[in-house]
Amino acid sequence: MAAPASGATSTASRKIRRLGIGVILVTALYSAGWYYAANRIESTLHDMLGRGGFGSLDIACSNLKTGGFPFLIGFTCDKTAVEEPAMGQTLEAGALNVAARVYNPGTALIELEGPSRLQLEDGSTIEASWKLLRAKIDAGFSGLNSLSLSGNEVKAEAVVAALFQSFSLQAKAAEAHFRTDGDALDSALLLREFQWQETGGEPLLPPLSASVEAVLNERAGLLKGRPPVGKAMTGIITSLKFEMPGGLFGELSGPFSINDAGYMTGTFKTRLEKLGLWEEVLNKAFPEAQSTISGMKAMLQGLASGGDAVDVQLQVTDGLITLSMMPLGHIPPI
Question: What residue ranges are annotated as transmembrane (predicted)?
Answer without folding.
Answer: 19-37
